[in-house]
Design a protein that fits this description.
The complex is a heterodimer of chains A (275) and B (403). With 275 residues, chain A is mainly alpha-helical. Chain A has twelve helices and one strand, in the order E-H-H-H-H-H-H-H-H-H-H-H-H. Chain A has one domain. In chain A, 72% of the residues lie in helices and 1% in strands. Chain B is globular, with a radius of gyration of 25 Å. Classes of the chains: A mainly alpha (275), B alpha+beta (403).
Amino acid sequence: MEEPAEYEIKPRTSFTPGIAELVQYRELFYFFTWRDIKVKYKQTVLGFAWTVLQPLLMMVLFTLFFSRAISPSAGALPYPVFVLSGLLPWMLFSSGLANAGNSMVANANMIKKIYFPRLILPISAVLVALFDMLMALPVFAGVLLFYGVAPGWQAVWCVPLALVLIVITTVGAGCLLSALTLKYRDFRYIIPFLIQILLFATPVIYPPGFVQQKWIAQLLMLNPMSGAVSLFRAMFHGQGVDAMHLALSGAMALLLLLAGVFYFRKTESYFADLA
Amino acid sequence: MKPALEVNHISKSFRLTHNAQPYLSLRDSLAGMFTRRSRASKEMFHALDDVSFAVERGEAVGIIGKNGAGKSTLLKILSKITPPNSGSVRVRGRIASLLEVGTGFHPELSGRENVYLNGAILGMSRAEINRNFDDIIDFSGTGKFADTPLKHFSSGMQLRLAFAVAAFLEPEIIVIDEVLAVGDAEFQQKCLGKMDDISRSGRTILFVSHNMAAVQSLCSKTILLSGGKVKSTGKTADVIAGYLNENLGSASSYEPNRAIQKPTGFTRIDLVKPPGTNGEPAVVRFTIHSDKACTTALDIRLQSYQGAPAAFGSLGTLQRDTLLQLHSGTQTAEVSIDMSRMANGLYALSADLTVPHKEYYDRADMAFYIENCLNPAQSGDEILLQEWNYGYYHLPVNLNTFK
């Protein structure tokens, strides 16, 4: 008989991102994502319709209340298209973050009973949100058709790059918040509040130039979602995003990912004792 | 060949907080930053204290011990769920742990979907599950319901499905917590059989249980944990005998929980001595109080731990001349119960004080459990196990003629 693989269980001392293990358990990403999607659509009467209805209703609401005030500065785009093209990436972030933040507590039973790389849970939670967003894209296309607006050729790279940026941001923040939520249950109340605040710190319902005070505008640039939403919207002509802003958002997103994964991995081994 | 598992001086302690929940509140943490009191007042609980042992490849090892002896913590460390504070474990081979069956089962998903999900969580690849899917469903006996949501399964069916998935794991080392303590007898028997197959196929098994009979039938070697330390280790029969002897002093007992004492009734029942591994009888002491002198029968009933009546014995009911003559006041009756022909396993003891067909004085229902733990090594013959579901009493059979 050949000697089987040998490894050691001991107190953890140094930091590793644990990528080899994530690759080894890669099928779990699929299974957790698939489970959450299945369960979500089995438990609700309207099922998939929710994914589509939610951004549409928000679009209608924002249009009713803000189109008069914001429209002139939204450029050539009709305000409903403008706000929906902000809401779609925003909802990827907000529902991804909410799911991921709660993922450790929601799966506490599993954490206490079986080992698998814990990072799979928040990442899968973000993948569920990504799936929802992709499902909503046909409706977005319908709205574009309705208003007779067509995206430019640059959509081919803007949209995927924006999605990558959002996923990085959401995974980073999600890992951080899920580890914190497990340790301090207060974060269950903090996260929804945080998401609400961030909505106003991101150019979703207003265009980037809307904020007049220079220092506030500069501060908001640090929010990686501001670059991501602008980039997503850059699929339309006249909705550019400048390279500096994008680079800053990218750097912030990576920083958030590093910080999130680092904190997560640092506290991960004690999750079972806390859950 | 090197051992499959080498446990080297592992220790694990927990900080005892007096909160009900293990997690913290931000408020307490913030407050803790400004005050010094908290740190000193925290007590440490040593769940495991310098534990070392080795498990050879292909060996089936039982881990026994009382509640709080550190069994679960040890399993959690071996399963990588929680790290030790110090020491290390060297593992040679893929390890699968079953601390619970059906981890990750979701009630909204169908039986089929749950098999895939649970299999993946336990570490099976999709290809492995595909290959074994029909066998898993067969083994669980839930074939017709594969596409029904799990919430419509009975709890027994859920359990069977869960164990079936686990039974088809193909790791080199398998760590099992008392998953067999549940489920009907037939299925338990099937599970024990499967585990026997697993150990025969050369895989290493670590089995934690309170069920001495199951440990005895499955494991050649056993480790006894006590207070977080390895108390003894060696051949299963010896370790179990030592464990049962150690418990002699703290025999199980029962006191009726009632406000008004009956005119004639039990005030206390003690297990003085559990049945021995070589068939020595169990000794039970009944303390009986009576307001008046009277004659009574003392009935003793044993039930299997699934609740089925297993045996009946009496002083008085079956034989008039063994009736007890009570005097007024408190008295004790020490009774030996011969369990040497009964199946190995746990039995609940109940007792009644009656005058047959006339009067009913008192009843003690399921006072405590007595474990029958006969040692097959003594006689060289097989021992009847409760789990076999062949009945609880070893029926004497004699060959009269054979041509």
